[in-house]
Design brief:
Helices cover about 85% and strands about 0% of the residues. By secondary structure, it is mainly α. It has one domain (about 1-384). The longest helix has about 35 residues, at about 115-150. The radius of gyration is 20 Å and the shape is globular. The two termini are about 30 Å apart. The model has no long low-confidence stretch (mean pLDDT about 85).
Length: about 375
């Protein structure tokens, strides 16, 4: 348990970075005022980015542990380069579907004209493609460095990547908004050139690896559909929570970090499970969770520690009783982390039983589910 706790708390402490992403948006609210569609684009961009990045981190961490991916950028395996090509393709597919649906719906209800509908597609794809070119190497770098230092990538890659990538993608979103306001024509030119170079790189990466790439893309499409359904259903079901949180500014301030920490805790257990499944160390049964009790207890304890730290920060910086905040967030950790970890484990088992690669599903679906589960439990904790 001690090893699990040390590595888990190291990873989960990076969720303080989620606060920075929120501050970036708060300080640059002008970006949402440029055009009516700007505020609609941001959540979708973050969801697609999170799903694709979760797929990448799961494959990288398991691949390093199995030895099918090396800790090098230039001298790596076919699986690594096939993964990069598949992730880039998944980003394009996810971004194209999301932006096209949003653009068409906006046209139909009269929110935008044809030119602005084109800008929606260009904006989403430019942001996602640029983000993928930055965050995939960063994700791989975190995994490589963890592996070289004798740490377990399953504990570190997704939690560190997700929080840092939130900052990177938010900053990119703001830069894209600035470029769009300065020169819409220049922005379209950037999109066209970027898309051509991006697709050329994808073609070079998948050449000779088409079968592996198509399989990864097939799984990622299924994953993106499931994530979209979870996000939309959860968003509709939990819309009222913001009114409740508005009465507790201290909790509202750390709300994004609370969601990401619970999701990261689940991703650690899920990533450990996918590695153990690949190594044949656990059976494809929910009862095999008992064999992962030491990992689970370490993850649970580290998440509770980080939640207590969030409570202290919220109490000191925001408003409200510090003791009340710490008590409520500790209770949230005691309830949310086991539920999210169990969900993550069951996703891994379910995907493996269907013959799919669990690494293509655990992090993306678990992360989307964790947001809904944690938000619902936070509502319960705050109102009791």
């Amino acid at each position: 348990m001690s090893g699990s706790f040390r590595q888990s708390i190291l990873a989960l402490m990076f969720n303080f970075g989620s606060l920075l992403a929120g501050f970036l948006i708060a300080l640059n609210i002008w970006a949402f005022e440029i055009s009516g569609w700007m505020i609609m684009v941001y959540p979708g961009v973050m969801s697609v980015r999170g799903a694709v990045a979760g797929l990448a981190s799961g494959h990288i961490s398991t691949g390093l542990n199995l030895g099918v991916i090396k800790d090098s950028f230039l001298e790596n395996t076919e699986e690594f380069y096939s993964l990069l090509g598949g992730v880039m393709l998944s980003s394009i597919v996810g971004g194209t579907v999301f932006s096209t649906v949003l653009a068409v719906l906006s046209l139909l209800i009269g929110v935008v004209d044809v030119l602005n509908a084109l800008f929606i597609v260009a904006f989403v794809l430019s942001t996602l493609m640029t983000a993928t070119l930055i965050t995939f190497p960063f994700t791989a770098f975190v995994g490589f460095q963890a592996f070289k230092r004798g740490l377990d990538p399953d504990y570190l890659v997704y939690p560190i990547m997700s929080s840092t990538a939130d900052i990177i993608v938010t900053a990119l979103y703001l830069l894209m908004a600035l470029a769009y306001t300065r020169s819409p024509t220049g922005f379209l030119t950037y999109w066209a050139v970027l898309q051509a170079l991006y697709l050329l790189l994808v073609a070079l990466l998948v050449r000779g690896r088409l079968e592996e790439t198509v399989e990864l893309l097939r799984e990622s499409i299924v994953m993106l559909i499931l994530v979209a359904l979870i996000v939309h259903v959860a968003g509709a079901a939990l819309g009222g929570i913001y009114g409740v949180l508005g009465r507790h500014p201290g909790i509202y301030m750390v709300y994004p970090a609370l969601l990401s920490t619970a999701g990261d805790a689940g991703s650690i257990l899920g990533s450990r499970a996918t590695t153990k499944i690949a190594l044949g160390e656990i059976s494809l049964s929910p009862r095999s969770l008992v064999n992962m009790a030491p990992e689970f207890l370490g993850i649970w304890a580290s998440a509770a520690t980080v939640y207590a730290a969030f409570g202290i920060v919220a109490g000191l910086v925001g408003t409200g009783s510090l003791i009340w905040l710490v008590e409520k967030l500790m209770l949230l950790a005691l309830l949310a982390v086991p539920v999210v970890c169990l969900t993550s484990f069951l996703i891994a088992i379910g995907a493996a039983l269907r013959g799919w690669n669990p690494d293509s599903f655990v992090n993306p679906i678990e992360s989307a589910s964790a947001d809904a589960l944690t938000a619902a439990l936070l509502y319960l904790v705050v109102t009791i």
